Structure formats: structure tokens, C-alpha cells
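Marked as duplicate of an earlier ticket. Keeping the data here for the record.
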Amino acid sequence: MTVRITRCNHEDLNILQEISIETFNDTFKDQNSPENMKVYRESAFNSKQLAEELSNIYTEFYFVFYHNEVVGYLKVNTNDAQSEEMGDESLEIERIYIKNKFQRHGLGKYLLNKAIEIAEERNKKEIWLGVWEKNENAIAFYKKIGFVKTGSHSFYMGDEEQIDFIMAKTLK
């Protein structure tokens, strides 16, 4: 398997936007109304928003390539870019998304390992993420690799409030 991970920059904005919309839509369209999906996509994945996030020194995006094709991405946040106040010793994994047809190839694990590597390079003591309470497969995966539920927070999909479990893993 030929897998490569590269950091995204401003020149990657269009590709980042395309894969963000595709993977988010594929992951959540069956559980949410088309109206709420549209509102969220237009808010989170518009060019201006993504450009601002790419400019934030505490946010990083990484593409995962499988046989030279971009098939997913990772978004991590530290310090003030974290979506919850978790402190300077934590790194947030805000997004790990893989295109549907490339799931079950272990690519999410590559991205997770990249996040852990980044956290360790920056001397973070913990990594954490929010996962939708109805995403049972993801919750089971994260538990299997050592994440524990530490709380929850609200996530808004358009006008619908949803609950994300906050799951964290202490690093060595």
C-alpha cells in the first residue's frame, strides 16, 4: 500500500474544500436534513473560512494520499484554535475524514498516528476529539485504541443541536 501524508497550504485550498464537502456529505447526509447539511457546508467549508483556518498558526490540515490520490484529510488544533478550552497541553483532532470508497483500508489510523506524532513533537500530554453520539462505529474505534469519554458538547448542524462525546487519550 502506497500511503503518503502531506501538510496542506493555501495552494491546496480548492482540493481541501472539495474533499471536505465530499467526505462530510457522505458521512452525515443520511442522518440530517438536506437544509441543515447545506447550511453547515456553506458555513464550515466556504473558501474564506478554510483560508482563515489555513492561516491560523494553531490549526493544521494534512492530506492522506493513497496511490497518489488525495483520499482524506486530518485537521488538528492547538492552543486557542481548539473548539473547547482544553489548555495548552492538549491537541484537538477536529476532523479525520476518508472518502467512502477508501474506508476500511487503515487510512484513518495513518491520520490518527500523524496527529499523535504532532502532539508528541509539541510536547502535548493529551489528544482529544469530539465524536457524534450516534456515530457508534467511530466511538467503538476510538475506545479500542485507548480514548475514553470525558464529557460532551453541543454541535450545531444548521438549526439542530446535536451532542458530541468528548473523548481523550493521555500520551506517554
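See parent ticket for discussion. The first helix runs from residue 13 to 28.
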